[in-house]
Specification:
The chain is an alpha+beta fold and about 325 residues long. It folds into two domains: about 140 residues, PurM-like, N-terminal domain (60s Ribosomal Protein L30, Chain: A); about 160 residues, PurM-like C-terminal domain (Phosphoribosyl-aminoimidazole Synthetase, Chain A, domain 2, Alpha-Beta Complex). It has eleven helices and 14 strands. It has an eight-stranded mixed β-sheet, sandwiched between helices. It is globular. The termini are far apart. It binds adenosine-5'-diphosphate and magnesium ion. Adenosine-5'-diphosphate binds next to strand 4 and strand 5.
Length: about 325
């Protein structure tokens, strides 16, 4: 019998230490975690009368974040994109699993990555309950589990023609932030720093999503661009959508960095916002505005679902035409 560990054991010991040091106890402590990190699988106690709501998203180095991106931001965003998906369902997030592929077990990198994820997890009372660790090109997959009272979750498909359409926050900021990060947009100062932060550390609208179960007919999170995602909601709801150009909210930081025209174009077409776009039946709009004051909750009415399929942006009575990267010309008038 050899006295020392075999190389396979040494590798798994290092892996065990890595998991133990950085990921055990990461995030919130929850009493509904019967078994968490350390066994072959987690055992979770879903509340009675609730349905499990599950989402998974992968971030690939150089594709979903710039190569060399701050590890804390990668940890934050990997969880944030999933929190945003659960927010769009009106679900309460609870448990996360992390599948991490690393080129090397770099302690400084892992420590910042775990801290970035843990801070956001704690803020939303999410416990990291398991995962997988492998070696290879950097790739981060988070699976997030949460719950909502039976049959109460929000869907993309619940909208009807005539419903009012809203968006939270100020879309476009994150898209400009990414352009700044990658040097495509040259700007410095407070506004530029704010926009970068909006890309690196998005704030998923979890509390708003949960409240919207009482008001919204349909909901989607804005990850691919407001116009595209509003179009997806409308399509799933069997209708179309018209967005009023002048109503699209833009942040002062975005306007001061790129100008008003480009700010609105980014707000409509840039991705990575992780805001919520939702529809509300006309009969419920008054209650929504009264009970969730828009100034406090940070959302804006931007348009209306309609019978005619498709997604249009209307400015001064004319339909604007957008290409994938932004609008290119005015296409006819109404
Ligand atoms: P197995 O080979 O049985 O899947 P692992 O060594 O992969 O075991 O994982 C051991 C424990 O550590 C499991 O509870 C697993 O869920 C957890 N785990 C592994 N990698 C991670 C990670 N990156 N983050 C959180 N938990 C992890
Ligand atoms: Mg196992």
């Amino acid at each position: 019998m050899p006295s020392g560990p075999t190389s396979i054991e040494r590798v798994s010991l290092a892996e065990f230490e890595l998991i133990d040091r950085f990921f055990r106890g990461c995030g919130a402590r929850r009493t509904d975690v019967r078994v968490g990190v350390g066994d072959d699988a987690a055992i979770l106690d879903c509340p009675a009368g609730a349905e499990l709501v599950a989402a998974v998203d992968t971030l690939v180095d150089g594709v979903h974040f710039p190569h060399g991106c701050a590890p804390a931001s990668i940890g934050h965003r990997a969880l944030a994109v999933n929190l945003s998906d659960l927010a769009a369902m009106g679900a309460r997030p609870a448990w996360a699993l992390l599948a991490l592929t690393l080129p090397a077990a770099d302690e400084a990198w892992l420590s910042e990555f775990a801290a970035g994820m843990a801070a956001l997890a704690r803020a939303h009372e999410v416990a990291l309950v398991g995962g997988d660790t492998t070696s290879g090109p950097l790739c981060v997959t988070v699976q997030l589990l949460g719950y909502a009272p039976r049959s109460s979750a929000l869907l993309r498909s619940g909208g009807r023609a005539g419903d009012a359409l809203f968006v939270s926050g100020t879309p476009g900021d994150a898209g400009a932030g990414l352009d700044l990060e990658q040097g495509r947009l040259p700007a410095e100062g407070e506004s530029a720093a704010y926009l970068r932060e909006r890309f690196l550390y998005p704030a998923p609208r979890v509390a708003l999503g949960e409240c919207l179960r009482r008001y919204a007919s349909a909901c989607i999170d804005v990850s691919d661009g407001l116009l595209a995602d509003a179009g997806k909601l409308a399509r799933a709801s069997g209708c179309g959508v018209e967005i009023a150009y002048e109503q699209v909210p833009v942040s002062p930081a975005l306007v001061s960095t790129v100008g008003e025209e480009r700010a609105r174009r980014l707000a409509l077409t840039a991705g990575d916002d992780y805001e919520l776009c939702f529809s509300v039946q006309p009969a419920h709009v008054g209650r929504l505005l009264g009970e969730l004051p828009p100034e406090r909750w940070g959302y804006t009415r931007i348009g209306t679902l309609r019978v005619t399929p498709g997604a249009d942006v209307v400015r001064d009575g004319a339909v604007m035409s957008f290409s994938h990267s932004g609008y290119d010309h005015f296409a006819g008038s109404a």
